[in-house]
Every structure is written in C-alpha cells, then in structure tokens.
Design a protein that fits this description.
Length: 341
C-alpha cells in the first residue's frame, strides 16, 4: 500500500500546504516588528484569499468552519473503487448480471470497478468473497489506506448514483454521526435477519430506535446486516477482512459470509481497528427483499411495491435484490421498474 497511511483527517489536513506559504514564512524572518497599517493588513488578507487551497476557502473561513473544510478536503483527495467476487461466468443469472453491469456503466462505476475470480478458498465461494477481496486490497500499491472501497455482490446489485455521490454521502454520514473515519465499515441494512442466530436479537435491539421502514407506509423495517454491499476506508476493510478470514478458517461451520459478519460485528469483542455500522437510514444502500420474493405477478404489484421502486430508484446509491429468489417474472418486472435505460 503506497502513499500516506491511515484515514485520519488530521493527517490529511497536515499535508495541505497553502500555495506561497514557504515564501511568506521566509519573508517574515526579515520583516520589521513595527505595527502594520490597516491597508497592509487588508492586502495580506486579499493575498491569502487568492492563495487559499483549491477548495476556495480563505484562511478565516477555514478556521471558522473546520468540520466542513475537513470533509471537503478529505473527499477531494480520497479515491473510491468498487470490488466484487464471482465464482463463474454468468449463466442463468446472465440477465441480472447484465442489468448490474449496465447500471455500473451508466453511472461511471465501470471505470473504478474490478470483478475478482473466486479462487483458492478452502470453504467455498462465500469464503472467497472475504479472502480474495482481502488479498487484492493488501497487494495494492496505487491506493492509500484512507481511500474508499465499496464491495458488492457480483450478480444482484444495481447502481443508481455516481462514485462521487457515494463518496460524498459516505463522508457526510461519517461526519454527521461522529464516526471514526479510519475505522467505520458501513453495511447494507435489510428487513430480514439471516441466518437466525443470537446476533439477530442483538441487532434488533440496537437499531430499534433508528431503523427506518423500507418506504413510507410499509411494515418492513431495516434492522439487520446484509453483507452483499458494504463500504469503508481500505484500511478499515483490510482489518475487518483479516478478522473475518480468521473466523471463517477457524473450523466452525458457517452458513456463508453473512453469518461470519453477523458473528464478527455483533457477537465478538469490540475491535480496536474497525467498527461495523449499519445503514439503517438507507442513505447509501437499499435492499429489494421481500418485494423481490413476492408472489405478486408483473402488472399486479401492490402500491407499496411500486412506491418503493420509485423511491429506491431515485435515492439509493445501490439496490441489492435477491437474484435467486425463484420468482423470475417478478424480478424481471421489478428490474424494469428500477432501470431507466
């Protein structure tokens, strides 16, 4: 991993030099200590405003609004990439995969996206989602630990916003919630807990007051972690995946990567180098379940599902649907409702 390490805003701030700073410091060594006239002070302020960093914030504004400056400055420098892991060339899932890849291209994710081929995993493809992603991130030299990675399932995730929008929303969530940027990993939230373990009760209680309904008027509330989409700094994700890989390789039977993340995030001891968070506000991610598993046929869908499709399409960065739900006709309909091309 090359370049500056870590995701702390202080490290980012210390690396930003105001153009002309060195020259001004050298000149001040020879400047008389006599009082400076008001006209001279005004000239200095005007010069500093011209020479301020690329954000267009002069020194006074930067000092008055440090949190805003920090967010924007971090955003302007942090890269963002997306990763997925696939165990086969699209077959039956081809039409879903096609929708996913088209949505990436439409919103610019194709230029920052990589799909890894699942390989070398002792415990199957769900293990590969953890192990192969970890191996890829650890080998990168063009990325920094404070850069962002959005992981998503390869076949059943649709994109509706640009990478820059995802980065902006993530940074704002971190700031507004006072999360530690270098540690937080934000997961997709869904209305169903799988697999059913003690971790389900922990999540239900933890998010009882903050979880939102899938859409206004619906009975479904998103309170549980879905591992099909998550996002965080590369440093935090690497730490999390190392722990997840060790847990997966412990010899215990796991019902997939989601089972491992439920255990890791809610049943294990507090971690010092990463922290799992859930997008219960649905600011970043939305899920289609149980609507994509409905027995309602195309053209006969309830008003709540149509409302959800309209809201999700216009607001979500990604939508994760159940690609293997079995009701292909309904999934085809809901995809056509969501996709605008």
């Amino acid at each position: 991993m090359g370049g500056r390490k870590g995701g702390d805003v202080e490290a980012v701030m210390s690396s930003v030099d105001t153009p002309g700073q060195e020259e001004r410091e050298t000149e001040s060594d020879t400047t008389p200590t006599a009082a400076i006239s008001e006209e001279a002070e005004e000239e200095v302020r005007e010069e500093e405003a011209k020479e301020a960093p690329e954000l267009g914030l002069n020194k006074d504004v930067k000092e008055a609004l440090p949190s805003v400056y920090d967010i924007q400055n971090t955003m302007s420098h942090a890269k963002i990439i997306s990763l997925s892991v696939s165990d086969h060339t699209p077959g039956h899932d081809n039409r879903y995969y096609s929708y996913s890849t088209q949505s990436k291209a439409l919103h610019g994710w194709d230029r920052v996206s990589t799909t890894l081929r699942a390989s070398g995993c002792k415990y199957g493809v769900f293990h590969c989602k953890i192990k192969n992603t970890l191996e890829y991130l650890e080998k990168q030299t063009s990325l920094e630990l404070r850069d962002l990675v959005l992981f998503h399932d390869a076949f059943d995730v649709l994109f509706f916003q640009k990478p820059e929008t995802a980065r902006e929303r993530w940074e704002k969530l971190v700031h507004d919630n006072k999360w530690n940027r270098s540690q937080v990993v934000l997961f997709n939230a869904e209305s169903n807990c799988y697999p059913t373990t003690t971790a389900c009760d922990v999540q239900r209680k933890r998010y009882a007051s903050s979880a939102t309904h899938m859409v206004s008027g619906s009975k479904e509330v998103v309170s549980w972690l879905n591992s099909g989409v998550y996002m965080g700094t590369i440093g935090a994700v690497i730490h999390m995946l190392r722990s997840a890989n060790a847990l997966y390789s412990s010899g215990h039977w796991w019902g997939g990567d989601q089972h491992v993340f439920h255990e890791l995030c809610y049943m294990s001891a507090v971690h010092s180098d990463f922290e799992c968070m859930l997008d219960v506000s649905q600011t970043m991610f939305r899920t289609a379940y149980p609507y994509d598993n409905s027995n309602v046929g195309p053209g006969k869908s309830s008003w709540i599902i149509k409302r959800w499709a309209n809201v999700a399409r216009d607001s979500a960065v990604t939508i994760h649907f159940n690609g293997k739900a079995g009701n292909d006709d309904f999934i085809e309909w809901i995809l056509k409702e969501l996709v605008s091309w």
